[in-house]
Amino acid sequence: MSTLDAAQAALAAEHAAVYGYGVVGGRIGDKRRAEAREAYDAHRARRDALARTVHDLGGKPVVSEAAYALPFPAADTASAARLAAVLEDRVAGVYADLVRASEGPLRREAAGALREAAVRAVRWQGGSVAFPGLAELTTSVREGV
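RESULT FIELD:
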């Protein structure tokens, strides 16, 4: 995967995360609303930075879709928290790809974004995985392979 392709994928994931957090924020309940707002703001900032990065890499930044299919309905506080964890896991995955595809300052930035997504995922789901953003390794560890 080229650096530009990985940056575009990360940008697309950030668009989806911003949309998803709009749903999360509407369902999360008062106790965790500030946490959802902070994540929403963080994803918006990352999205904007990635759009500039894609442009600097010579690409045309992918635009946001009008709507995104959610992996499951977020009808209450518990399902909204699960959705937030899924959003963070997905974002971590694309940032892991960007870490692999880039170098220098962009790689450091992608590693920081991966770390932030992993930390937020832990907060939302109450537990962590051995290799955030690396689904193939996480699955292997869970299965004892």
